[in-house]
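FORM 7B: Structural annotation worksheet

SECTION A. Query
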Amino acid sequence: MAGGGNDQSVRVWSLETGENILDVSLFNPDESQVATPFEDDNDIIAIDWWPGTPLLAVRRMSDLRVDLVDAETGTRLFAVAELGSSPVFVAFLPGTTQFLFADFETAGLALYDLATGQSTVLESPDSLTALDSLTALAALPNGQHVALGLKGKVALYDVESRAIVEELAFPFGGITALSVTPDGKKLIAGGEHGQLVIWERQ
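SECTION B. Predicted structure
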């Protein structure tokens, strides 16, 4: 399990033992690490595993990039700086070399392919606004659908058809966190007032 916060460090824990097994400082001056000057507004706001690999995608508040960090060694492999925007959420699509990112101001909802170095806009910023302000993002294991946390609901978005295919009611206001179990059978949403809702899926 990995997490990051306002101290600009990524921490990795073993789920078997509960031990903290790795700390990565994102403002370490060592160039083998993610090296940038300390900034007050550079908190980590998004982090995701690349399924089947030890790689983490890490997004900081003031950066116009996503860093790829090896969670086993703590080294940065490279930074994706070609996004041309400030991504708010990051989620890898399982079984692909792509990650999804969202930015309300310039890029909307888009895919970046690590294999080709190309990004593809799926939804413009205007259409994202019509989705009632995206507040959370999680990719399903099938690599085709993504759960979008919206105000009062979770929308399942089909990346290929670029359409919402299902909506799940969340009657507790805004959604602050989303997660999907590895088998894709459970979808979990956390709310702004502390609620947790779990949906069983086929």
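SECTION C. Observations
The first strand starts at residue 2 and ends at 4. The CA atoms of residues 133 and 150 lie 6 Å apart.

SECTION D. Sign-off
Analyst initials: ____
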